Amino acid sequence: MNRILLSLFFVALCLFSKAQQQDINAKIQEVYADKAQELVFNNPDRLRDLNDILQNRLKIEEMAVVGEDKFTKLSTVDLLNRYNPNLTRDDAFNVNTFNALKYNLNFFPRSTVIYRVDNSNYVIIIEPQSIKH
User: Which of 29, 84, 102, 110 could form a disulfide with 33 if both were Cys (CB 3.0 to 4.6 A apart)?
Assistant: First the structure.
């Protein structure tokens, strides 16, 4: 019985991981369009960095606005539409479908940076890279 449960858990974990990677790949494809293969998928370091950003260092949380909001508003951040000129801002913010790669966010900060999603309680938090020895 324990082996069956362990096997089912492993299969579920593999399926979740595959779905998560497909979602990340779709986000990369959206931003890099025809150049995605050349610039990201054929570049293991860049692909690893983008995966690290989206899986480990970027979080979206609810944080009520208290007093004067000091965070940079997402609407003031440029789109990264160099490779996909048809890229557009989201009409409405959706935590489940938001593609942070579309925006020129500071993905490599020295300390934590926070952006406010306009007219909402949502913030985008980007943690600095950890040094791995």
Answer: 84
